[in-house]
Fold this protein.
Amino acid sequence: MATRIGVDKWLFGITLTLVLWGLAMVFSASAVMATERYGSPYTFLLKQSLWALLGLITMTGLMRVDYNRYNHAFVAYTLVGLTTLLLMVVFLMPGSHATHRWIRFGGFFSLQPSEVAKPVLVLFLAWFLQNRMSQMKNWRRTLLPAALPGFVFVLLIVAEPDLGTAVVCFAVMGLMLFLAGIQWRYLIGAVLAGAVPLAALLMLVPWRRARIMAFLHPDAAVQGVGFQTNQSLIAVGTGGLNGLGYMEGVQKLFYLPEPHTDFIFATVAEEFGFLRTILMVLLFVLLGYRGLRAAALVRDPFGRFLAFGITATILIQSFFNLSVVMGVLPNKGIPLPLISSGGTSLFITLASIGVLLNVTREIDGN
């Protein structure tokens, strides 16, 4: 085992910078809307700040806990079981906007189990695959039991419905299996098999089909289902090179729906402009580099899979969010990690980074 040293200061600093930038943008994007709805411009900022504080405390605590403590069957199966239970409980909760994604406790606190499912899936696969890299051809004893919890998570998340998060889980699972050495024919077969139900979910569900049509023909749905994406592109274009200035954005003023959540990057682009917005993208790239570097340098397979899975989850989710905001992909409803308003997402991401930071302590030289 490598000599224990301090955590990756670059990764810690990047995370803290993104969290603070995210809080600033949540306030900018939500102040007017919060005043209109709740009579105070600080409503969403206070909620997000509380989650940020809890998340940073948890991250700081977890980066001091040896990640090998999670390397046990009891931990892996218990977390999978509890997460599956939470994903089923959401269907007993009152729906919101025709979805069942949250378990609510009063009017202030809510939990989104699909956010919990992502790191739990990573931990389970890290534990399960660490000693089975030489058995990746055995579909019955390796591939099937490895993929089963992920498929259960994906099916339950799709049923909420939350197709975007389900796609993220499926992609992370595929990448981790690829890292473990799965044969291309199995991976391609899984992708092709998944493409059929994905196409059905996209084209047979009316509102999803409308989103696809709006993506393919944006000019024909400016005031319809494509309204949010079109307003996002207006915000991005209005920002130009240097932006309109912090708090000076216009599209967030009841033009761009829910600008503090999934489309918060549009407000970033409008207010900070292309030159400074690229800095945020570069911070995510650097975060990904430090995470993948940890995965490459840590010596034990469990730590390698854990670091890779956590980093891949953040990068994939960031890619999808930015692509939707820029109109490169259809609207999927995926938050931008560490930036978008959403307590569960922020807390779980920070907790996951805390585990990743602990992995970096096993690397000779940061």
Notes: The CA atoms of residues 241 and 275 lie 6 Å apart.
